[in-house]
Structures are given as structure tokens and as C-alpha cells.
Specification:
By secondary structure, the protein is α+β, with helices and mostly antiparallel strands. Helices cover 33% and strands 25% of the residues. The protein is built from 17 helices and 29 strands. The strands form 9 sheets. It has a 7-stranded mixed β-sheet with strand order 3-15-16-22-19-18-17, with helices on both faces. A hairpin with a 4-residue loop joins strand 7 and strand 8 (127-129). It is flat. Bound molecules: glycyl-adenosine-5'-phosphate (GAP). The site of glycyl-adenosine-5'-phosphate has 18 residues, from strand 16, strand 19, strand 22 and helix 14.
């Protein structure tokens, strides 16, 4: 059966999320709060599974990454150093009539006739407004709607019966200056800082102002030295963190996709600068074609490390059931890159609400960004805190004197140039920047440098939404009487499914069946998330679990009790959600059979 498409599909998914307890609107009983969401019983399990899987694959299954769990509110200087105080903003525009706020880049271009007014008078009251206003009207439509909107505008400025002044009109094309909902002129774009403010302590003063973190990454940079000291790691190594982040998004939208409170899973993977690698290894290995470059090597430069992390992350998504063809690897163009980034790949997922290209194919929306951020972040914290963020690299110190003097000069020059470019970009005067950069190059020759970083940064909520969209499916299955009906199945990969196995006694009024089923439940419960259900016809119980996305169902029947002969005693029916196939399995084999599928 064909899958339902886009808006209709999204409506079905949102409705299922509420019906089955995956996602609820926050504060629903008070009308909700835009941009905030709660996860119900199944959603909480799903999110936990996604985070656990990420945590294990990024830290516990590797030797070179350790974890961190930092506070949400940190010293406000952190956000000055990171650039969030001055630059973490979106351009916004307000409707001059309704005051509704839009993100400037999200206003769709429109065509039509623009009506301009230079002001208005209210002769009876002797009042006047010289504020200019304008309204966009679709071609072929009479000017009355423009005049009505203009009168409203001047009434809001205290004119009871406005006489419009200086009306003129002209056709306009591809304009983003008007509210698409009512044609009213919008304000000029203004930057709007996305950080949510709060006050620490009992006094609400400027001095006590702080922010809910807009990303988890900065805590990793701020704690870099502490972690390095205690973890016995050396560069290259990473620090991973999962946690809440907050952004006062202008337009939260697409269900949970753009929220004001969300969770991130971020890794900062620290690497040597290329100059240090060249000094130690003689050359810097660069990517040799596309695909996974294999096991990390000492001579990898930033490009190959970046490629490695892009491929690792794609493999992760595939390992939890997102097919490769539902993902897009988008390389940001030069003009899209942040000033400190050498390269950024966005991993996009083809959400049903994604925009489409000219061929009608879904373009995809960002799940994760993997950025090569140079040494920008640690350098900024070094400058703002006055604490050194350099590491000492014994191998570099030992390698440097063995280089030819030409090579030493070349590497010093290259390193000093990158450092002075950064310092000048950050506003240091040229002369000072050059002096500092030369000191940095001198330090490099003695084995010291500020590590560079590759940052894979993913959103938990976006991933949860992607796996929900990917899992949603409808097919045909027989009902109790064998008549075919539409079945909604959440085809979650068993590794991340909220519930792994449902256990059913065939009949609830047969104590022997119930007792045996509870024994099976108790056998499996320490190993897997088990749902026990004895209410209703068995077919209906299967359907409920299909909709919850439970990959396996175990039914205890009279054969299990040995009533049809000893050969079937202590066996159960194991039903597989996707194929609906059933097979007889010994109870003692169940743990191994199930664990093999969910690990
Ligand atoms: N430290 C880098 C950083 O924060 P980002 O691209 O702004 O980069 C990383 O965010 C990820 O966090 C995004 O790819 C997305 O998955 C998630 N994310 C960002 N803003 C979000 C929002 N408003 N709602 C839900 N998830 C968001």
C-alpha cells in the first residue's frame, strides 16, 4: 500500500505521537507553550535509547573519547568568548499591523501591487500621522483591501477616522517586505539574540544576568584542561556530552523540529594542527577519495579526520535504522561557512515536511552538523579567561630539532599566519596580532599548541522525530475474523524501539497461562524492556504493540503448558512485528534470541 504523503502523513504522525504517548504538547492543559514538548511513556524510552546508543558508540566503545556532564547555566563570559552574546542572532521582521514576528529568511517572496501611503489625517479630531505605510495586494484585486488595512494601521496610531494621504501604487516582484498572511508592510530586518536570559541569585540586575546555554559545546571547551588532566588522554582525543540546550527561536515549527528547549549530543574531537603533524610524521595524510578512511592514523590531518567523523556519523544513523537513501550529506558552500570553520557537512534527513527540489525530491532538513572548527574555540577561551589552552606534545618537541631549518621556517610561517589571521579577525591590531602569532609559532617549535577540533553536533529531538517519521508505516493485515484491514506499524529498529518485547498469556482467565506468562516476563525483564499485556483478544493486543513499534511478541498458550504433548511444553510463539511471522521457540532460548536482535 502506498505511504500517505507529506502534510497528510505528518498529520497522521503527530496524531499517533499523541495517541500512543510518544510526544505531547508541553503544558497542554493550559493551551500549550509554543516551542516546548514533553515525551510520554513511549517517547521517553525512545529518547533514552537514542541517547544511550549515541553515548555508547561515541564514548564507551572507543578508547579515545571521554564524557562530560556540565551545568546548563555557566559564567556569562563563556558566551562572550564563544561569540554568542554578539552574533548568535537571527534577523527578524515584525508585521506593522498585527506585530506578528517572522524570521526574515523565512518570509516567502511574493508578487503583487504595492499600495503606498504617506500618512493620514483625522480632520474631525484635528489629528495627523506622518508615518508611511504600505500594503501588498494580489494582482487583479481591487485596492479596497489595501485601504482597509491602511486605515487600521492609522487607527492604531490614534486616528479614529483616518483620511489616507498620498496613495500611489506600483507592481512589485519577489518581495519579502510584506506579511504573507495579510499584505501589511514588515519592519526592516533587525537582529534578535536567541539566548534565553535569566538572573542568578536574588537580585535581577545586569551584573547577575546569565543565560541558559544555547549549545552544550562550550562547556566542553571550558572544561578542556580539567578533562585532559584527569583522563590520561592525549591529542587526538574527544570529549562527549549530552544535554539540554535552549534557544528563543523566533518561529518554532515543524512539530518538534525547531523547538525552544531541546537536547544535543555533541562531541568535540581535538586534533593536532596540521603543522604539528607534518613535523612529527613528515607529511599530512589527506582524503584519498570518498567513503570511510578506516582506522585513525597518526598522520591524519584535519581534512581526513573530518571525513572520518562524517562517515562515522552516517554509519551510526544507519545502525539505528535510518536508510542511507533517507539521509543527505550536504557540504556547506564557502560563503555559508562560519568564519572559523574550514569545512562543515550537514547530515540532512528527508522529513516529510522538507522542501522539495525542482524534480520534486525531498531536499532534507538538518539532523546534525559536522564542523572542522580550527582552533577557534579554545583560542577564544584562552584570550577571554587568560588561562592557557595549549597542550604539550612530547612527540612534537622531539621531532622539531630533527627538521631541516627550511622546514622549520616553513611550518613556523604557516602556523604564525593562521594564528595572526585569527587574531586580526577577532579585532586585535595587526602589529599585536603578528607579535602574538610569532610567539605561538615559537611555542609550537617547543611542542606547544592550541588543539584544533572536529565537532559532530546532533539534536536528540530531531533524531527522535526522524526515527518516528521513518518508522511510520501502514500495511494490510487480517483482523480477528480474517478480514483485511489497515494496520499502522511503527517499524522502529529493534535497537532503539521503546519496548523490545511484549508478553501475552493467550487468555487472562486461565491462571496457569497467566502464571507461566508472568514467569516469562520476569525472565526477560532484567535483560530487555518488556511490556506485559493480558487484556483483550490476542489479535488486538498484537495491533496495539505494532502501533507502539514493539518488534517482538511472545504468546503463552496451551501448548506451552504441554497440553498438546510433551514436545511443545515450555515453548512459546515468537511473533515478529514487521513480517508478522510466528515461530515456536523454547522459553530457555528466548533471552539469547531476543538479545541478538536488539543489541
Ligand atoms: N555546537 C554547534 C551547534 O550547536 P547547531 O547546528 O546550532 O550547532 C546542532 O546545532 C544540532 O542541534 C542541530 O543539527 C540540531 O539537530 C539541533 N538543534 C539546533 N537547534 C535546534 C532547535 N531549535 N530545535 C531542535 N533541535 C535543534
Amino acid at each position: 500500500m502506498a505511504e500517505p504523503k507529506t502534510a497528510e502523513l505528518m498529520e497522521k504522525i503527530v496524531s499517533l505521537c499523541k495517541r500512543r504517548g510518544l510526544i505531547f504538547q508541553s503544558s497542554e492543559i493550559y493551551g500549550g507553550l509554543n516551542g516546548f514538548w514533553d515525551y510520554g511513556p513511549l517517547g521517553a524510552e525512545l529518547k533514552r535509547n537514542l541517547k544511550d546508543r549515541w553515548w555508547r558508540s561515541m564514548t564507551q566503545w572507543r578508547d579515545d573519547v571521554v564524557g562530560l556532564e556540565a551545568s546548563i547555566i555557566m559564567h556569562p563570559r563563556i558566551w562572550e568568548a564563544s561569540g554568542h552574546t554578539s552574533t548568535f542572532s537571527d534577523l527578524m521582521v515584525d508585521c506593522l499591523l498585527t506585530k506578528k514576528r517572522f524570521r526574515a529568511d523565512q518570509v516567502e517572496p511574493q508578487n503583487g501591487i504595492a499600495y503606498f501611503y504617506s500618512g493620514a489625517t483625522d480632520d474631525g479630531a484635528g489629528k495627523e500621522s506622518k508615518d508611511a505605510f504600505s500594503v501588498l495586494v494580489a494582482r487583479g484585486k481591487p485596492p479596497e483591501s489595501a485601504r482597509k488595512a491602511a486605515k487600521q494601521f492609522y487607527q492604531q496610531r490614534g486616528l479614529e477616522n483616518p483620511n489616507l494621504a498620498g496613495e500611489r501604487s506600483e507592481p512589485v516582484e519577489n518581495t519579502t517586505r510584506y506579511n504573507p498572511e495579510n499584505g501589511s508592510l514588515l519592519t526592516e530586518p533587525r537582529p534578535f539574540n536567541l539566548m534565553l536570559k535569566t538572573y542568578v541569585g536574588p537580585v535581577e540586575s545586569e551584573d547577575n544576568k546569565s543565560y541558559l546555554r544555547p549549545e552544550t559545546a562550550q562547556a566542553i571547551f571550558a572544561q578542556f584542561k580539567n578533562v585532559l588532566e584527569v583522563s590520561r588522554q592525549k591529542v587526538p582525543f574527544g570529549i562527549a556530552q549530552i544535554g539540554k540546550a535552549f534557544r528563543n527561536e523566533i518561529n518554532p515549527r515543524n512539530f518538534t523540529f525547531r523547538s525552544r528547549e531541546f537536547e544535543q549530543m555533541e562531541l568535540e574531537f581535538f586534533i593536532r594542527p596540521d603543522e604539528a603533524i607534518e613535523a612529527i610524521c613528515g607529511q599530512v595524510a589527506k582524503p584519498n577519495g570518498s567513503g570511510h578512511p578506516g582506522e585513525p592514523q597518526a598522520n591524519w590531518g584535519w581534512q581526513i579526520w573530518h571525513q572520518y567523523w562524517v562517515e562515522e556519523r552516517l554509519r551510526f544513523y544507519e545502525s539505528i535504522g535510518l536508510p542511507r537513501n533517507s539521509l543527505v550529506e550536504y557540504w556547506q558552500k564557502k560563503e555559508e561557512l562560519a568564519h572559523y570553520a574550514k569545512a562543515t557537512v550537514d547530515v540532512l534527513y528527508k522529513f516529510p515536511f522538507s522542501k522539495r527540489d525542482e524534480k520534486g525530491e525531498l531536499i532534507g532538513e538538518e539532523l546534525e552538523g559536522i564542523a572542522a572548527r580550527s582552533d577557534f574555540d579554545l583560542s577564544q577561551h584562552q584570550r577571554f579567561s587568560g588561562k592557557p589552552m595549549t597542550v604539550f606534545d612530547e612527540e612534537l618537541k622531539a621531532a622539531w630539532p630533527k627538521l631541516s631549518s627550511e622546514k622549520q621556517a616553513e611550518l613556523r610561517e604557516c602556523y604564525a599566519k593562521a594564528r595572526s589571521d585569527y587574531l586580526i579577525r577577532m579585532g586585535e591590531p595587526q602589529e599585536k596580532a603578528q607579535k602574538l602569532a610569532e610567539a605561538d609559532a615559537e611555542a609550537l617549535s617547543k611542542g606547544y599548541y592550541v588543539p584544533h577540533v572536529i565537532e559532530p553536533s546532533a539534536g536528540v529531538d530531531r533524531l527522535a522525530l526522524a526515527v518516528i517519521c521513518n518508522a511510520y508505516s501502514e500495511d494490510q493485515a487480517p483482523d480477528e475474523k480474517g478480514k483485511m484491514e489497515t494496520r499502522v506499524v511503527m517499524r522502529f529498529h529493534p535497537r532503539i524501539a521503546p519496548l523490545k518485547v511484549a508478553v501475552f498469556p493467550l487468555l487472562k482467565n486461565k491462571p496457569e497461562l497467566v502464571k507461566k506468562a508472568q514467569e516469562v516476563r520476569d525472565l526477560l525483564r532484567p535483560l530487555l524492556t518488556v511490556f506485559y499485556d493480558e487484556a483483550g483478544a490476542i489479535g488486538r493486543r498484537y495491533r496495539r504493540q505494532d502501533e507502539a513499534g514493539t518488534p517482538f511478541g511472545v504468546t503463552i498458550d496451551f501448548d506451552t503448558l504441554g497440553e498438546q504433548g510433551p514436545e511443545l511444553k515450555d515453548t512459546v510463539t515468537l511473533r515478529e512485528r514487521d513480517s508478522m511471522k510466528q515461530e515456536r521457540v523454547k522459553i530457555s532460548d528466548l533471552p539469547a534470541r531476543l538479545l541478538e536482535k536488539v543489541r
